[in-house]
Structures are given as structure tokens and as C-alpha cells.
Amino acid sequence: MIGFVGLSHLGIVSSLVAASKGQNVIAFDTDGTLCRNLDNGKFPMVEPGLDELGSMCGSRIRFTDDPKMLSECSVIYLSLDVDTDENDRVDLAPLTELIDHIYCWISSSVDLVIMSQVPVGFTRRLATELNGRSPQNNLKIFYQVETLVIGDAIARARSPEMLILGQENAEEELPQLLSSYLKSFDCTLVTMGYESAELAKAAINSYLMSSVAMANTFAEVCEKVGADWSEITPALRLDKRIGQRAYIEAGLGLSGGHLERDLRTMLDIAEALGVHSNVIKSWDSSSKHRRGWVANIINSEFNPSDPCPMISIWGLAYKPDTDSTKNSVAIELINNLHENAISVYDPVARLNDDTREGVTQESSYLEACKSAGILVIASAWKEFKSVDLEEVKNLMAGRVIIDPLGVLDGRHCSAHGFNYYRLGRKPLVPNASDVRY
Fold it and tell me: Residue 189's pLDDT is what?
């Protein structure tokens, strides 16, 4: 029996995947209402394929708020997502409280696997502390690097490229049930010491951040000189040293929560240890610079003496196929455009109740663009790709489309009379003397 403790996004997906692999699973959370909803197939987040995954599990998974049921488990995963504060620093208090809550109900010889996102040194400290509580304890503590990518979580959880496992002795043979479970994923298993495993996730994300920063810098150069970054990226992908899955699309800085969290972690480590960190700081600076791209166009490219146009925003989630708005470009834009009326649409994400006055959420993208002077496409939802541009044109009061990720075809937009802005290329403006909004 395998247990999962903490049913946030990570815990829900991980426990369902384990059950879909044929394991009997106890999925525990202190929130009884959440557990009952999960038992009834009601999920608190959006994730493609989640309903289908749940239906595959049958009776192999039990959701419960009764910690006594964890005593049946030989392996227990701590799978609570660790939140970050406004400075992207992790808050470990909920995780440590959860560990204390379940401690007296777990076997003294259980294999405890930390899957939550923790800083370097956490797992070793936890192992020392838990095994020091009783001389009879024989807990084996592991750290497994989570591979959660919101919007693609199920596919990656079921078929990871690799699994990274940290343990006190990297050469030691793994316990039978844990080893059997990890082998069921049919991928490379990389074992290492606690600290190496904890740092591996930050190292991977840091490498991705360097790619993001490079791509955004070259995209900005393209905007100035008349090159097109989308024409250059296929050449990079054909280079075996870079590859098909490289993070080289132009974007509005870093988004979501994981990259920012690991950026903050690496900066804190570098500062504490006296490590030279200018390259890490440059990623942060590059991200903040590019995140202001849309607002800079709105605030600088148009005549400030004219009345503030109404802004339509398509997409609130930080990326498609999720309802997560953590570090969302759309939310940041709403917060920065204090004087503009804003109308938004997203297929699943919703505005917070405390959103400022003057911001409304509509039930369709067409409703959201009525009377708008400027349309901003902030998330690349598939349904936006098939819009009728003539219908959009007739509904809008203006003729400006800001499409950072190139969801629409810029040439078609220009042909319909729109002034079109996309990251990594010069604006397409049919008549530079007639910018109407």
C-alpha cells in the first residue's frame, strides 16, 4: 500500500497516477470536504485528462481525512505543494505541520518520500529529527524530485523522462516496494545524495531560465532590426546541442511559480555562501524587463493625450490548459493598468473577488472584445486560434491587437486592418498614420 499525504495539485495527480499504475493507494488530506469531493470525482483544479485518469483508478484509491489509515502503508509520499510568498520564497510551515499531524499514525519502519518542493538541507534535517524522536524508529527518508508541469501534469507524471531520487547513501539498494513502484514508470532512475537531489530541480530550472533569458533577448533584438524570432527558432531546434524541446520560444519573462521559486532559492543560496551570482540576477532582470512588454506598448506607443482605451484581455491563466493564475501576465497587466476599463475572458480561470473596479469578466471572447480599443491575447488557448477576425473587428472600437505569443496570424490581422504586435518581430501596421482606438 502506498500513501500520499497532502492533496494539492501535486498530491492529487501523483496519487491518481500511482493508482492507475496498479498500486493500492491511500490519499490523505486534513480537508475532509476536499476528500469527499475527490471521492466523487470532483477535482479542485483544471488539468487535461484528469477525469479520464480518475476513472482508470477504480477502487484502488481511497481519499480520506483519517490519518489512521496511513498505518496500512509501507511507502508514504509527502506530496503537498509548497506555496511561495510575494518574494517567491517557500513557506514550509504547512508541510511541517502536516508531517507532525501524521507522524504518530505511520509505521516506525515506513519508507517516507518527500516529493514536496523543499530547499537544500531540508530532507537531511527531517531525517535526523524524525529518527531522533524515538530510538525504535527505523524510518528511511527519501527525496524524489517532482516533475509537475501544470497543464501537462498527467502525461509527465505517467511517462517522465527520468526519476531523480535522493537518499542518505546514494549507493544503498532501495526498499522493495519503492523500487518496484519506481520501476513501473519504465524510465531512467538517477539516485544521489539528499542535497544533490534537492539541488537538481533548481539546476534543471536554472538551465531553462538561461534559455528563456537568451530567447527573450534575441526576440527583443529582432523587434528592433526587422528579423523574426519565430523564423530563427527552427534552426536552433535542429542543432543537436539545443534540440526539439528547448525553451527558446519568446515569452513575457518567467511565468507560473516553479521557475521563480527556484530562481529565488538559487539567489538565497548564492548570497548565503558568497557564490558569485550575477548570471542568476541577470535572469531575474531579463524576466522583469520582458514582463513589461505589453504595458510598454499600451503606455508608450499610443498618444497619452487621448482618452484611455478600454482593454480586452483574452486569457487569465498563466498558460493554456490550466486555471492557475500564479504570476499570470494578465493579472499583472490588470494591476498595472489602473486607469483603463478592462474586459476579460478565460475558458476556465476566474478573477479574484477582490479585483479592482472597472474590470469585468465575460462569458465569451467575443463579449470581452466589444467596444475595446486594444485586444491583448495573454494565454494561448486553442479556441483563440480560430476566431473570425472580421467579427472581432466589427465588435471592437479600435484596431490594435497585442499578441505576444503569436496565437493569431499577424499577416491576417494586418490584412483585416489591425495594428499587430508580437514578441520577436517588428509591428505589422497597415497604415502607420492611422492608429485608431
Answer: 95
Q: Strand pairing of 342-345 and 359-361?
A: parallel
Which residue's entry shows cell 474586459?
343
| Helix 93-103 with 122-131: angle, nearest 10 deg | 30
- Determine the Cα–Cα distance for residues 245 and 206; give it in Å rounded to an integer: 16
Between CA 364 and CA 349 the distance in angstroms is 13
Model's pTM, two decimal places?
A: 0.81
Q: What angle do CA 307, 308, 309 make, to 5 degrees?
A: 110
Angle subtended at Cα 45 by Cα 210 and Cα 209, rounded to the nearest 5 degrees: 0
Q: Which residue has the higher pLDDT, 368 or 435?
A: 368
Question: Rounded to whole angstroms, what are the CA distances from 428 to 201, 409, 425?
Answer: 40, 11, 9
Q: Which of 247, 250, 246, 243 is nearest to 222 (CA)?
A: 250
Let me know: does 252 contact 294? Beta carbons within 8 Å: yes
How many whole angstroms separate alpha carbon 379 and alpha carbon 382? 9
According to the model, what pLDDT value does residue 301 have? 66
CA 79 to chain centroid, in Å, comes to 16
Judge contact between 363 and 345, C-beta under 8 A. yes
Q: In what order do the strands lie in the sheet with 374-377?
A: 359-361, 342-345, 311-314, 374-377, 400-402, 419-421
Instruction: For the chain, list the domains and their CATH numbers.
Output: 2-194 (3.40.50.720), 202-291 (1.10.1040.10), 293-421 (3.40.50.720)
301: its cell numbers: 506607443
Beta carbons of 102 and 73 less than 8 angstroms apart: no
Would you say residue 432 has pLDDT above 60?
A: no
Tell me which residue has cell 484596431: 399
Of 256 and 86, more confident? 86
Residue with cell 528579423: 227
State the CB neighbour count (10 A cutoff) for residue 428.
Answer: 17
Please give the Cα distance from 74 to 25 (Å, whole number).
11
